[in-house]
Design a protein that fits this description.
Radius of gyration: 22 Å
Helix content: over 70%
Distance between the termini: 26 Å
Strand content: under 5%
Oligomer: single chain
Number of strands: 0
């Protein structure tokens, strides 16, 4: 990649942040619109879950594939394709005549979204080569999530109340078009020097695992946890996981390099990320339905009620980054875990939201799950940030480096990593490997 001026680098950062903004804003805006969508489409609660989880499922399944494809074909090219597909999916969602079409079009959105965030992160890391500049750029990138959380509920409430729930998808089209124009004009093309080869078997196993597991979780409350259908999907998920673990260990360039999980900080980061996003998604889903369906608030008022949480995210996200840089990750993780546990227990055990007893009783398991996610963050924050955890990360790094030094043909496929390619899009799709950094 040619050396860019400071002004051009900032412009590239702004373009990448625009992609993160529309993807993050889309999720927070959608939650506020769920009750209106449910009434208009005459669907069930599980149907509303599918509008969110179908998107998340496809996004998670394709992140690694999109990253490796960008490394191979060109990051700008894949990023442009992601903007086009995401905007097209948004437009289709706004025209959906029923729930089935809406879920299908949300999956189209997710295909585009999978080509945006990991690739944009890779573009940033390749644009800002100085470590200090790169850290600041990534800090700005992370702050966009806080902005989307603060703006999403209000924007969604205004659009739903003044226009229609379909308008929440319209806003992605002009922003995506502007980002596409600026990308073509200002973002340079780049590729990884040694991109990974495609792993179709691993990709299909990941899709099978996530798809069957998600279906079993969403449909089990209505079909019954012991129904043959749910048990069949659960068994398929277990088989897909076993196949993935067996196959990926034997591949020279796996889709998921399982050796990274020998590092306690890496494994902890992965589980903490899952718990944090599960708790956030669960909170937004349950709280939106509660505020509008139970309390009878308008979409705009419900969005305003979420402002305190969004405001705290906007304020504490950059402060957390500074705290990690100053004292390490242990203290922020412990504080986060304690706050998540406290909030979940307040709702689950003390009925902090009590208004209609039937809803409180029905939603109590969700709040206990959120509290459990907080407990997991608290426990893993303590276990994966100490001396033992750092030693596992060091030993894992040494094994990987020694395997790279082996001549071709001397190291078995299960121990030989793919050729290194710094700042790859596929690496950007993985959780960061060491808390202490």
């Amino acid at each position: 990649m040619p050396q860019l001026s400071h002004r051009r680098r900032l412009l590239v950062l702004a373009i990448c942040c625009m992609s993160l903004l529309i993807v993050s804003l889309d999720n927070t805006v959608l939650n506020v619109a769920l009750p209106s969508m449910q009434k208009d489409l005459d669907t069930t609660l599980s149907g509303m879950q599918w509008t969110i989880d179908a998107y998340t499922l496809v996004l998670a399944s394709l992140l690694m594939l999109a990253g490796s494809t960008a490394d191979r074909l060109g990051r700008r090219r894949v990023f442009q394709a992601g903007l086009v597909v995401f905007a097209l999916g948004s437009l289709l969602c706004s025209l959906a005549p029923n729930l089935e079409c809406l879920v299908a079009f949300r999956m189209v959105q997710a295909v585009g979204g999978s080509m945006l965030n990991p690739v944009a992160m890779s573009i940033i890391t390749n644009t800002f080569t100085d470590p200090k500049e790169r850290a600041r750029a990534i800090g700005v990138w992370g702050g966009v999530v806080g902005i989307s959380m603060a703006a999403g509920p209000i924007v969604g409430g205004l659009l739903v109340q003044s226009v229609d729930w379909r308008a929440i998808f319209w806003i992605n089209v002009p922003i995506g078009a502007l980002a596409l124009f600026l990308t073509v004009r200002y973002v340079p093309e780049s590729r990884a020097p040694h991109p990974r080869r495609v792993d179709p078997v691993g990709q299909l196993l990941v899709i099978a695992l996530l798809g069957t597991l998600t279906y079993a979780i969403i449909e089990a409350p209505s079909a019954g946890w012991t129904s043959p259908l749910i048990l069949g999907f659960a068994a398929t998920a277990v088989a897909a996981l076993a196949g993935l673990l067996w196959y990926e260990r034997r591949r020279a360039e796996p889709l998921i390099d399982l050796r990274f999980f020998r590092s306690a900080p890496f494994s902890g980061a992965t589980v903490v990320a899952v718990c944090a996003f599960a708790a956030l998604g669960g909170f937004l889903f349950v709280n939106t339905l509660y505020l509008q369906d139970v309390r009878g608030l308008s979409a705009l008022d419900a969005g305003l009620y979420m402002l305190p949480m969004a405001g705290m995210t906007l304020v504490f996200a950059p402060l957390s980054g500074r705290l990690v840089g100053a004292v390490g990750a242990r203290l922020p993780l412990l504080l986060a875990g304690l706050a998540m546990v406290a909030s979940g227990v307040l709702f689950a055990a003390f009925e902090a939201e009590a208004s209609t007893p039937l809803f409180v009783e029905a939603s109590r398991p969700a709040w206990w799950i959120i509290a459990g996610c907080g407990a997991a963050v608290l426990l893993l924050g303590a276990l994966t940030t100490g001396h033992w955890a750092r030693e596992t990360a060091r030993r894992t790094a040494e094994r990987l480096e020694s395997a790279q030094d082996e001549p071709d043909g001397q190291a078995p496929p299960s121990s030989r990593p793919a050729a290194p390619h710094g700042g790859s899009s596929q690496a950007a799709a993985r959780p960061y490997c060491c808390w202490e950094h």
